Amino acid sequence: MRHLFMSAAVIGLAASTSVMAQTTQRAGTEGVQAVEEVLVTAQRREESLKDVPATISAVTAEQLDAMGPVVSTGDLLRTVPGVRFNDLQSTNLSEVSIRGSGTQRATGADSGVGLFVNGAYVGSSTLGGRNFRHMDFFDLERVEVLEGPQGALYGRNAEYGVVNIVSAKPKFTDSGYVCATYTGQTEQTKVAAVVNQKLSDTVAVRLGAQAIGQGKGFFYNPNSGKYYDHTDGWIGRGQVRYRKGPLDIDFSVDAQDLNLPSFLNTYVLPAGVVAAIPLGLTQSKYEVGHEGKDGVHQQAQRAMILADYDLGWAKLTSTTMATHWISRQNYAAAIDLATLAKLQSQGQIGLYPFGQTSTVAKDRTLYQDLHIAGQGLGGNLDWLAGADYLLQHDLNGTDSATTPCTLRVGAGVCAGTPTQHLCYLPLATSAACPATFGNFGTSARAPLRNESVSAYGLLRYRVARFTFTGELRYSRDDKSASQTTVYLYTDTQAAAPAAYDFESDRLNYTFTAAYRLPVANEPLVYAKVGTGYRAGGVNARTSSPYAPNPFRPTYGNEDTTSVELGFKGNLARNIYLRLTGYSSQTEDAITSITDGCTAVNACQKAATTFNINGGNVHARGVSAAIDGRFGLAGGLLTASLNGARQQARFVSTPGDYSGLPLVGSSVAQIPKWTASSTLDYRRRITGDVVGFGNVSYQYQTGGVQDSVTAATPAIWLNDVEQVNLRAGVDVKKIQAAVFVQNLTDQSIALLQFQTSGQPLANRYSTPRTVGASITYRW
User: Fold this and answer.
1) Which DSSP state fits 376?
2) With respect to CATH, is domain 2-402+439-777 assigned 2.60.120.1440?
3) What pTM was estimated for this model as a whole?
4) What does the domain layout of the chain look like in residue ranges?
């Protein structure tokens, strides 16, 4: 499939180029469609994407609409070379990776990719802080992806790149749209409406809302009659823009209240692997019953003030954001009482059916950026100076319900609370539960305070065809965290309280040299060296003094230095090419290990997981992207094709800890190859009727899921190959379209759990969906 689709895209480009050339010979430049000019804010100021000497991609709202519904962050990034969205069904757990920024699951550390909305940092150290929220990509204008270290202009956690979502601002025209989308297999209805109104020559407003309802899903719990992949709720946004003379200020407030999908882990356990289920257990991919709760409830509120003031000799820009969000998630063991009864009737112990985990993640963020930018030396010198401040108060909480009695064949199953004991008899012959119950689990709360302050600047000088750019930033991070753990439903401490502090200073830089080639269309070649870092932090927990791996309360920053060579420019007026090669060195890579404790060694307790600086990583890769716009058969064909090859390996690890990644092993969550292609065609059929069609293809292969250690063999990432279709007509102000997501109905294990190198459970991707949308614009 991938070879067929990629070949079709290349042939389409070649054929369209031939048509364009023939048309040009007949009628000058008739039929030639110039590649669209896109403005980005990659260097903290608005400028043409083609003029910025860096690997940058910009995906506009129109391009996203053409490809079909935006359901998750992955839909925003599927056409960007070298970028992967690690989709784990739950928005709380999913994250973005760029180039070598593979991340071991469950590290509890910040992301190595900076997440920004309108230039304001929206990532966090808490659960869910590695992913955007749904309101972030509602009514957007474009998505900017900056690859490579961006630490000099964007600061903390922009170590491997930045994703910046730019929201649509109020415009000084009367306009708007209403869009309804229906997806058949899930019976999901999504209705969005945006009204943009010019109130005067100086004031404009933009109001928008989205409501989502869903009747079905793919992943089903027959016990509760609910779907694991259920979504419903609302998003709202209101904006007021004031523009007069040199002042342009936009004030916005937005919010969301959504129930979002959780996840389902399906057992694929062979016989002889787990002592409690010696005969094995295989479950359906899509229908598993259990007794607990599931789902994610995510609420968020945000206020932003974006202001520009033109001083004449420079422009002053201020970005202010205050946000508050809460994400609560429930998930339970993928087994119910009926399944346990079946297992015990076969003489197997089975698994506890009332196990339940409930998490809460809260974040309050205040962000302020202020910078001034101008020119000098007759326009040959660009300069910028600024400072930003970030203050976050986070809370991570986890309640884990476990069995208060030993699970045994022929015995009752204990549940309930300390004040209300419950006993379930899986078999008619099962003995009653013991009179005395033990602990019902634990409840942990870990508040975190993070404060970061930075000062930064940029100088860019042009001489003849050369441009030299230098960027510099000084940052200081202060973190403090504590954790208390009690037995569930009680105030009795289950572990000693812990409290730690972490402080760090960093100086990051970027230097770029670029040259405009003296040939047609003057393409740009550049060389760049830069640094970035992922902020270290605290392990807010405790460990046994007898742990084989001594517990560390804090871990340091992860630092990356990267060298990049690139080419970007028009091969013709309607064909735009980007080529990039890079090599990066990461020191003190953050990874996760356990303290080595077990209930049967000197610790006499379960293992504690904590973060550590686990060694040095070398990453390198190449990427290429080509975009074209062509007149074809009386219509307009827009085509894009890209591919990337990357790898990152541990080249050294500390010798004083066990359980670290093996030297020479790949960094987790980095596919070796990624590629995507899009063909979009529009043609006037008659009068007011315009037909359109879009085909998009996404592919990835290679790489490992988790870090490879002496005790954990490689779990290879499954290949991903997805084709999406969308087609329809525009009739005056109305657009009607149909779409197919995952045309080939590919179903893969997004996440594979193993024990002792043997399969245990899988988490699967969503099958094919078909739907329709209708939009009215004015």
Assistant:
1) E
2) no
3) 0.93
4) 2-402+439-777
